[in-house]
């Protein structure tokens, strides 16, 4: 049986009986983003009232439904149905179960929520134990992708590849045994949680910036009484916030940077030697963080953006306040020890080319300073050939160049 999570018209008593019966316990509800709320309140020194916070929750439910019954927001200027497929979301959402024909439901709760959390906040029951932490999808930053720009969303293909491969060297498992339709459903559900989370953040910013007092409201509607049309109209001023996020996801495939072909002498001793020179040199400056021998022992004290955005990790008072509202303990991020040959985003030469070209968004690892196409002679930035030599050198440190996990998985099946 799939439990309905709509307590709308139910009396409290009925709701309590349902809870006691194990149906739709609140641990399965989307949780508000208290950490980002606190950060916005701290910056603006505006405290949002209970009504204002309840409005944000209601608006999100109106647009996105619940963790048991997801919806796709209906927006005038972006067809969100081109970004998210409702059937796929339904397959991934809700409690774990299966139909007689073998179709599985509740895939996200079954496979992902223990680490990533029901709301996609990266704070599931196992979340606090992991290092690195599981991704908080709500922030909209993804580390391993093919699109240009740290905030540009990944493509469906990027997410799918990641699910199939997993992330070697982290606790993120490979899901290569899942059926194609299940992988598609999970990809859409990650996008859904990310879009919903970004819209929630935008509504919090809008609230602290625009509301003039504790009684002022983002939209003056009675969500339990007004018709959907009336609510839709009342939210029309806020809809552009959601459209903006949905459009970024829709347009991500147009922003893929193709990996140029490997040069013919790639990985020759000369190519590796040039790569080493670049690695140690001032333009690429890899040794600054990864150390001269690639041990990951260069500059060490830094944190990722999921921590640094909210608070100063070195200030115990700030840290305490944020831990109290659900932030995870700050953990230092280290540059990878390249001699292990374990690459979280894949160890094919093309994967590493992408890593060096794009950097790793949300972390200190910077995008490579690339030469413009119309570069003048003497321009000291890097060209694709240089990146390929760097890839050759990085792989030479571990001899990992010949491994291809995706091909290995395909062979095993
Ligand atoms: C055992 C814990 C665990 C489980 C289960 C898990 N993940 Fe992850 N996941 C992680 C960790 C840890 C990371 C972050 C690794 C990092 O930052 O390098 C991650 C990262 C990700 C990312 C971000 C990739 C990027 O480029 O930034 C996505 C997307 C993702 N997981 C999706 C899923 C989905 C979908 C499922 C379920 C099918 C799932 N994960 C199950 C631990 C887990
Ligand atoms: C400012 C510090 C910094 C610099 C400079 C830097 N890196 Fe990194 N690098 C990192 C950090 C931190 C990580 C780990 C990020 C993560 O996985 O969350 C990393 C990860 C990597 C990885 C692992 C990718 C994977 O899939 O696991 C490779 C390969 C790498 N760096 C190569 C390079 C190369 C080559 C250069 C020079 C062009 C370079 N880095 C410059 C900080 C840096």
**What percentage of amino acids are in beta strands?**
under 5%
Number of domains: 2
**Roughly what percent helix?**
40-55%
Question: So how many helices?
Answer: 17
Helix-strand makeup class: mainly alpha
Low-pLDDT ranges: 1-25
Biggest sheet layout = 2 strands, antiparallel
The side-by-side strand order for the widest beta sheet comes to: 1-2
Which small-molecule ligands are present, each listed once? heme C
Tell the overall outline: globular
Instruction: Give the integer mean of the pLDDT values.
Output: 91
SSE order, as H and E?
HHHHEEHHHHHHHHHHHHH
**What distance separates the N and C termini?**
33 Å
Count the strands?
Answer: 2
Give a description of the structure.
Helices cover 42% and strands 1% of the residues. By secondary structure, the chain is an all-alpha fold. The chain has a two-stranded antiparallel sheet with strand order 1-2. Helix 4 (86-92) crosses helix 8, helix 7 packs across helix 8 (180-210) and helix 15 (349-358) packs across helix 16. Residues 1-25 have low confidence and may be disordered. The structure holds heme C (HEC) (2 copies).
């Amino acid at each position: 049986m799939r439990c309905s999570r709509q307590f709308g018209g139910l009396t409290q008593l009925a709701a309590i009986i349902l809870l006691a019966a194990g149906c739709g316990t609140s641990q399965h509800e989307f949780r508000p983003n208290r950490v980002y709320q606190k950060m916005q309140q701290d910056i603006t020194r505006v405290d949002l009232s209970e009504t204002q916070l309840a409005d944000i929750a209601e608006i999100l439910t109106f647009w996105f439904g619940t963790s048991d019954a997801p919806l796709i927001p209906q927006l005038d200027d972006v067809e969100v149905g081109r970004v998210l497929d409702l059937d796929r979301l339904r397959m991934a959402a809700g409690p774990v179960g299966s139909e007689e024909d073998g179709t599985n439901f509740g895939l996200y709760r079954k496979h992902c929520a223990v680490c990533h959390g029901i709301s996609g906040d990266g704070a599931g029951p196992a979340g606090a134990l992991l290092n690195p932490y599981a991704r908080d999808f709500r922030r909209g930053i993804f580390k391993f992708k093919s699109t240009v720009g740290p905030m540009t969303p990944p493509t469906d293909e990027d997410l799918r590849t990641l699910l199939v491969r997993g992330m070697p060297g982290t606790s993120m498992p490979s899901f290569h045994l899942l059926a194609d339709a299940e992988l598609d459903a999970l990809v859409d559900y990650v996008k859904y949680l990310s879009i919903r989370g970004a819209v929630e953040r935008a509504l919090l910013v809008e609230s602290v910036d625009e509301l003039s007092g504790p009684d002022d409201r983002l939209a003056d509607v009675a969500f339990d009484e007004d018709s959907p049309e009336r609510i839709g109209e009342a939210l029309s001023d806020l809809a552009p916030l959601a459209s903006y996020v949905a459009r970024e996801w829709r347009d991500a495939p147009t922003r893929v940077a193709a990996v140029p072909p490997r040069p013919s002498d790639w990985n020759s001793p000369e190519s590796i030697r040039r790569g080493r020179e670049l690695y140690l040199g001032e333009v690429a400056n890899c040794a600054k963080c990864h150390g001269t021998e690639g041990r990951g022992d260069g500059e060490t004290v830094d944190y990722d953006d999921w921590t640094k955005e909210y608070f100063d990790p070195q200030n115990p008072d700030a840290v305490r306040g944020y831990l109290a509202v659900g932030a995870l303990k700050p953990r230092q991020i280290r540059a990878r020890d390249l001699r292990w040959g374990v690459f979280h985003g894949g160890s094919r030469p093309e994967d590493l080319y992408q890593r060096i070209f794009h950097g790793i968004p949300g972390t200190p690892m910077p995008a490579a300073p690339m030469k413009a196409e119309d570069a003048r002679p003497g321009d000291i930035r890097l060209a694709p050939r240089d990146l390929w030599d760097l890839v050759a050198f990085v792989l030479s440190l571990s001899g990992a160049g010949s491994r291809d996990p995706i091909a290995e998985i395909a062979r095993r099946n």
